[in-house]
Amino acid sequence: MTKSDGQSFSFRVLTDELPPQDRLAVLREVYGRTILKAELAPVDDAPVHIDMQVRLLPGVGIATGTASPIRVAVRKEAIDNDDVILLAALSGGSHMQIGSFEESIRPGCAMFVPGGRVGANVTRLGFSYINLRFERKALQPLLGDVTKMLMRPIPINQGPMQLLISYATALQKLDEPLPGNMARMVSSHLLDLTALTLGAERDAEQVALGRGLRAARLAAIKADIAARTELRGLSAEAIAAEHKLSPRYVRKLFESEGLSFTEFALGQKLTRAHRMLADPLWTQRSITDIAYEAGFNDLSYFNRAFRRRFDATPSEIRAAVLAA
């Protein structure tokens, strides 16, 4: 399932929020017939569990999450597309059967499989995954004959595949839907990285290397910074060394979006401080403590930067929380 109107939206499917006796029926109707257009059945009467975050983009769909052992079967009468699907098993793994072909997807591996074919996928215990679905017509110009690259296990921790997985994971952490122009740009980046992963034709490879690789590296660096518990003393040199890039290249990646590495790092610190000031659980901590926790050593600089960013002082944000 993808979007083709240039827009983006996301939603979550969580069976744990449903009464146990209703989970399988709702899952079959909402997720199986409506989203996947497939039949779902638990394996060995295992308790049904799915926690899935879905993001739909122009020509691309992303799904990430966890699932209990479930058999997902596609019948001929339900087929309405010829999409190309990437299934990456982060843990647990699954077993894929398409027509007469069968192949296991082991933890740490991914596989491109053809949509529009009768088949089934059986997930294993502890299954966590990243699933990407592409319209074949979008990939075809970059790859030529797509069918040559399908049904082959690919490690997810190296080369373009690692960047593709990192980029998709970073996108799933966004809380807001992407506006139209950005959604289309992100779709292009995902297609470029997928083309590189599958072995793009020469001219397409040069385009993909220019667009998708840069975007994926920048997304991976941003996700790395956002996930850090300690932002104090963060530098382009340290980040570059961890990502095996030069500091100059890291700075140029940020400059391509019209901001500097320092500005982005400052924004992360300020956002973290604002989140803590607005959290009732932090009301017993002083503003000085929060500034330090967010990565600032100079309280005066923190106050000035905070006011410039949010048009309010830290004390005003704290007062609003206490009043509420």
Question: Could you describe the 3D structure shown?
Answer:
The chain is 44% helix and 22% strand. Helix 2 (136-143) packs across helix 4 (180-198). It is built from eleven helices and twelve strands. The strands form two sheets. Strands 1-3-4-11-6-9-12 form a seven-stranded antiparallel β-sheet. The longest helix is centred in the middle third of the chain and has 26 residues, at 202-227. The protein is an alpha+beta fold and 324 residues long. The model is unreliable at 201-208 (pLDDT under 50).
- CA-atom Rg in angstroms: 22 Å
Look at the structure and give the mean pLDDT: 83
Instruction: Give the helices and strands as they follow along the chain.
Output: EHEEEEEEEEEEHEHHHHHHHHH
Oligomer: single chain
Low-confidence stretches: 201-208
How many strands, what sense, and barrel or not for the largest sheet? 7 strands, antiparallel
Number of strands: 12
Order of strands across the main sheet = 1-3-4-11-6-9-12
Q: What is the 3D form? A: globular
Tally of alpha and pi helices: 11
Distance between the termini: 42 Å
Main structural class: alpha+beta
Task: Summarize, please.
By secondary structure, the chain is an alpha+beta fold. The chain is built from eleven helices and twelve strands.
